[in-house]
Amino acid sequence: MTFPPSTAREIAELMTGQSCEDGITDFHRSALQEMCNILTSGFIDGIANTLETTIDMGTPTLDHSSGAALSEKALSHVRKDATAIVLDSVVDVADSDTDFGIRIFLVPDPGAFVNLIDMLDMDLGESAGDQPAES
To answer: Which residues are in the CheC-like protein domain (predicted)?
Structure first.
């Protein structure tokens, strides 16, 4: 999950009620990490529920760097031709005229992802086969 520094400051201020004018404090960083944990967990749980499976994930860590450096570090284990899913989202904060953009990168393990898709295809095929044929 990535977002620009301006979004980080806005989220940190909204979550802590403290200004970031003098810089982002440890308290702000903790709030940002918790926000990432909440959004990531909700996103991954939603996918797992939809796919009727369990997805293991660790607690997200907070890192401040360029997008290129972050992606190189996070994706170093993935081959260049691996599958990636990228979602651009706008989060609208209730009872506020605030919204901010967040980019979520989902990079599944290629082997496990292919197996999962194969299982979905089988499930769809079985469901379609159970339907009466139209003439």
So the answer is: 27-62
| Terminal C-alpha separation, the chain | 49
Rounded CA-CA distance 13/22 in Å is: 12
Give burial (CB, 10 Å; 0-12/13-18/19+) of 131: exposed
Residue 16's pLDDT band, with cuts at 50, 70 and 90, is very high
The answer to whether 101 and 88 are in contact (CB under 8 A) is yes
Residue type, 31: A
Q: What is the DSSP string of 67-132?
A: HHHHHHHHTTTS-TT---EEEEEEEEPTTSS-EEEEEEEE---HHHHHHHHHHHHHHHHHHHHHSP
Record the pTM.
0.62
> What is the maximum span of the chain, computed from C-alpha positions, in angstroms?
72
Count Cβ atoms within 10 A of the Cβ of residue 61 and give its class: 0-12 exposed, 13-18 middle, 19 or more buried. Answer: exposed
- Torsion angles phi and psi, residue 23, rounded to 5: 110, 165
Rounded Cα distance between 61 and 36, Å, is 8
